[in-house]
Amino acid sequence: xxxxxxxxxxxxxxxxxQLGENIKLARKRRKLTTEQVSERAGINRTTLYRIEKGDPxxxxxxxxxxxxxxxxxxxxxxxxxxxxxxxxxxxxDLL
Length: 95
Prior knowledge:
Elements: H1 10-29, H2 34-41, H3 45-52, H4 60-69, H5 73-77, H6 84-94
């Protein structure tokens, strides 16, 4: 079986890069090393490095574990919570 690769346009790569930078800054503000965060998140340092670079190929569970270690799980829960467009579509269907 040949899995299909997801195509991510360059403008969306920027979103991941910004997310990675935000994670890196959060780690540094807490004065945590990459070794401490990766160990607590149950990932290797290479994976943390990829997360901090905004690699979209890293599993979302690994991103979540890093958020958890940084006490940012509430931020993670906010992803896609405000589906304004979806609600508008739903409202149109109700008319």
